[in-house]
Fold this protein.
Amino acid sequence: MDPRHLVVVGGGMVAQRLVEALRDRDTTGTWRVTVLAEEPRRPYDRVALTSYFSGRSPEDLSLGDPALWDDPLVTLVRGDKAVGIDRDARVVTAESGRTFAYDHLVLATGSYAWVPPMEGAELDGVFVYRTLDDVAALRGYVNGLAEERTVRGVVLGGGLLGLEAAGALDALGARPTVLQVDTHLMSAQVDLGGGEALRRLVNRLGIGVRTQSMTTRVVPHRRGGVGRVELADGTRLDADVVVVAAGVRPRDELGRGSGLAIGPRGGVVVDDTCLTADPHVSAVGEVACIQGACIGLVAPGYTMAEVTVDRLLGGGAVYAGADTATKLKLAGVDVASFGDAFARTPGALEVVWADPVGGVYKKLVMSDDARTLLGGVLVGDASAYASLRPMVGRELPGDPAAFLLPEGGAGAPDLELPDDASVCSCNNVSAGTIRHAVGEEGCHDLGAVKACTRAGTSCGSCLPLVKKLMATELGKLGVTVSSALCEHFSLSRAQLYDAVRVAGLRTFTEVVERFGTHGRGCDICRPAVASILATTAPAHVLDGERAALQDTNDHVMANLQKDGSYSVVPRMAGGEVTPEGLIAVGEVARDFGLYTKITGGQRVDMFGARIDQLPLIWRRLVDAGFESGHAYGKSLRTVKSCVGSTWCRFGVQDSVALAVMLELRYRGLRSPHKIKLGVSGCARECAEARGKDVGVIATDKGWNVYVGGNGGFTPRHARLLAEDLDTETLVRTIDRFLLYYVRTADRLQRTAPWIEEVEGGLDGVRAVVMDDALGICADLDEQMARHVEDYEDEWRSTLDDPEKLQRFASFVNAPDVADPSLAYVPERGQVRPATADERAVLVAGTTLEVRS
Amino acid sequence: MTTLDDVSTTWLTVCRLRDLAYERGAAALVPDEVAGRPVLTQVALFRLLDESVLAVQQHDPFSDAHVIARGIVGTRRVAEQDVPTVASPMYKQVFDLRTGVCLDPAGKEPVAGRSPDLRTWTVEVVDGDVRVAVGGGAG
């Protein structure tokens, strides 16, 4: 039987979820689906639009697995808008004139930004804040004006979207003022007390706020564009740009045109199965008027999409009601509201805790017996949001006030969530589903749990809770999830880093005596402490007690190979090497019989060096002008580059010069794991910089910087941190990013998983390194300046120190005797280690003199 | 001068105590016998903070390379006691330095025919000399 045809009108987040859910569940292919999208692109993450200002590219906003759109049963029609429905013939007509016959139709047209009636709304410089194109146009307009003067922005509307728009203007360097008609900010979500606390927090960011302000007129400037706005009370405010974020209205014109019932405040009326009065037409998301109202949030839309798919496949799902919990994502401002935030339930009690100085306001709404949680408002510190929200409608253990006190205070009792409590409301994932994934399906880390359950993959606000649930569950399985470094330290690496830095300790003995539990360390904590001390109290790797902390690679400053010999890699910064340098390296390799190979980091690796040969090899290399390449260290490895604008016909910037500068700046920086950088001179990206921890790509305006890429077992593409930076800002940004990573990552954690674990993810990292959200940037800058100043080549200083050179003896009683167990055979014109069988023949019968 | 024929020597002085760094191994060659033939065997010497010196085989049974002296020294809690240990630099197996017993095979098997445990030698420090019991004195 041919599959039936589902037509979805609208290409937003809810449409995407609907198609995803359908293709996930309709395994026998009973439906094929066509999505009609008005925008010229695939569905994208509209909730994260604001992050587009802080440097993300449109591709970072993509949703889900792009392979969905390659599915043969899925057709995405982009840039064509549905203009009419013939419900009798079951045909949709598009603007292009194309027609689409359907067996079932889903309206997912969403909503549009409502512009209040006022004079001047059509002027240049008045924007709405709804689509990627709106946001891109706003960005272009502000950037254009910013070249001439400080841009003053006015945002009409003090709700979620208005505050995000103000944050976006601020990120663009404009000076925003929010005009709110109501008595306080976010009046749909928080009460007056919360709104006041929120205003103070927003003011601190440099965003002005005027409440009870209705705009009546936008007045043009004589040079064109917007000049000022006028308020109902006669006030005039100068403004170069006006962003309207006064609310949204459902795009229900197709429903109206085809005679479907429309709600009192708009929206296509549907029942609890998301079906209209026409059994062949459903509506989901913001366009649907369900249970009497349209809801402008994505989570209820997702629920409607799931209900619709279930019904299409013959299931009996119903829409049970919306979780209208919200959390504002604005750097530096923490706001969340959930459940019955306004205490409208009869007899509801409010428990309030406010700290006006700290800008914190928290309120829990409880049932009349003060036991059942009904809702709450959290401003200034929403850390309890993830664990409290799923408890709505349930009894809280103990005194509710305990949940409002600052962290580290009396301490809230641990919440044991019931299995049916919803943890991720975006994707409707319950606590039980997460427990099952961990306990039964073997998901033992956050990434696996996310992939398996989809929890935390949309807005991410539930991730702290997901992590906690996972840890508890793993604990029950007997899997240790303690963040303790090893049996000798109960602190995590990040905690130990802070402790050592603050206490100013300089040796392992001091560290283990002060912060250790017992004993003298092990192969886990010793190198970790060595790495910490390397940036908190810099000294040579072989100085005093430090030598005993190093892995053999750091101890002999070479890379151990499988037969016990080492490989040697001199630095060739940016992959640049002179002919004389290459000749010198070649001569060393030839004279010591080393196997040579070009590395992935654009330099030469020489294999088969015995431990006692290392100082001799390095004497030659240092004399030829080379220095340690730190190929052996958990530290900066290389900065790979393409040839750049000096030679390349397409290059727009000098990538080699930048790569050399960066490599010389960060060389020797000890870190939780190896760090690799890349610099490409144009968007062709020949240096493969996005596969690096830090990737820099030239633009005609400066540099884009990407972070969190790696190859290896789990390859990751780096994601955009910031765009069009000048070189000075770029270097400062990388400085801070690297040191923030060095300070807070786990042992052997590359940057990609570290970014995932930083509070707020990439946005959180950006807030710290670009906006100094933690106030540590001056400290980081100072620390990097010290690193750059104090750097010395550890091989050169080793060669100058006879005591250090003693460590390279083959045998303490026969320093001139070569290790007799090493044996090599020829292969392709070079040598390779002999196999066990070959060695039995080559090594047997060795007799040597030893000193007595 | 000690040569391979000289297996009757019970104590072989290998170095001065001060030649050994604390908690960092050093390799030495000692005369030995394998299947009746005299050979030189590599041992790994470790000087601990209490000035004791312990010796185990330099050969790592899990990687078949002579590298144990280059491992990281530490301790491990075994039955309420902190046992001195070394971790192989190759695949991170942990060995008890006093007995040579492998405390943690790190999920690997020794190479064919090898015991996971390390052989040990008795060591004494006399007047600042480090002496290893060889031949009949092998522990």
